[in-house]
Amino acid sequence: ATPTALLTGTGRGAQLGILIRGPQVLEDTRTVDTIVLDKTGTVTTGAMAVDDVVVLSDMDAPGLLRLAGAVEAASEHPIAQAIARHAAARGRLPETTGFSSAPGGGVRGEVDGVTVTAGRAAWLEENGIRPTGEQTAAFGTAEDAGATAVWVAVDGDVAGIITLSDTVKEGSAAAIGHLRRLGLRPVLLTGDNRAVALQVAAAVGIDAVDVRAGVTPAGKVDAVRELQAAGATVAMAGDGVNDAAALAQADLGIAMGSGTDVAIEAADLTVMGNSLEQVAQAIELSRRTLGTIK
Ligand code: ADP
Ligand code: MG
């Protein structure tokens, strides 16, 4: 029997909605001692909401939002969906052509005859856009207030900032307690900024020293590798395109069932219920199943 069948056979695996890729996975659940958790969509709901549109040019806020919403409508990132939804609720969105995006970076496209670029500072820089010192200070102020902030540029110049917030999933804090009881050290890993990451970490009981923020998708792989090099056996839970490579690098990759296909394909184990409690249960159940069949 395959381990999936074994877990299903217990009734509990099926009941819990845990999908396991192969026999080795059970063994891996026994040895992991560290769990790297992606923030957005894993520890938090990923259902982000736009809080503010800060104009840093001669545009007006509705016009800025409309352009950003149009280009973000083509992306499946939680930030993108929030901006597109917010904009679409305030008026019909124009069409975007020539769309491109970088996971963990941002988006770019042509809207109404102008080029719209939205994302983090590094993505703007890649597109030859440099915010002024004053604009960077405004961005820092938004981030320091605990917001997720995104740059919006039009035709090569910064137009403004959109700030967003996310909510910690109900049950994430309790689940992290459960993971600790299973002997796992939780580490928070995110492409988002440090102030937001520290806020989330404090809310769920992850130590500030175990927060890695502002990390690119490649940086996520490096973070897992570094922990492994320091002797840890690493589980990683994530949901995004930006998590896929790190999930593959981890000794035990865990995808949220609501996650992107690439994340699920890269993972050893998928939890259909999308909760961290299910991640803890999956590890506990796999360890117990192993105990039974050995
Ligand atoms: P996380 O690790 O929290 O899931 P990501 O790695 O996906 O975050 O993204 C990191 C950062 O890149 C975001 O906080 C945002 O600044 C920027 N970013 C990524 N995708 C987009 C997008 N579609 N639009 C705007 N900004 C984006
Ligand atoms: Mg995520």
From TrEMBL:
It is found in: Cell membrane. It comes from the Bacteria. Belongs to the cation transport ATPase (P-type) (TC 3.A.3) family. Type IB subfamily. This is Cation-transporting P-type ATPase B. The chain holds residues 406 to 699 of 749 of the full protein.
